[in-house]
Design goal:
99 residues, 1 helix, 6 strands
Length: 99
């Protein structure tokens, strides 16, 4: 079972979530919104990459994406903001999703 992280400390409220297919396995997509109407996506899927921990960042036109995999899960947080802001949100999500 996977419970949506509470990102209210970062100013985001959960709008909803979906269960999606990811290579024949289930993946979770959560959508959050802040009071300015900016949206943030958290995507979680099974980690097919093995036991390695890996982090990647991408930034373009004010949108930052952070991808990481750890243990049995792979994650992505994508939203409007700088690297430090989105990294903080990703860290909060990770703390709540890690066993």
């Amino acid at each position: 079972p996977l419970v949506s992280p509470d990102l209210s400390d970062a100013g985001y409220t959960l709008m909803g979530g979906r269960l999606l297919p990811a290579g024949g396995l289930p993946a979770a997509h959560f959508l959050y919104e802040d009071t300015d109407g900016d949206r943030l996506t958290l995507y979680v899927q099974p980690n097919a990459g093995g036991d390695e921990t890996e982090f990647r960042f991408a930034e373009e036109d004010g949108i930052t994406a952070i991808f990481w995999r750890e243990g049995k899960l792979a994650y992505a947080v994508i939203g409007r903001g700088d690297r430090d802001t989105i990294t903080g949100i990703a860290s909060a999500a990770h703390r709540q999703l890690s066993p």
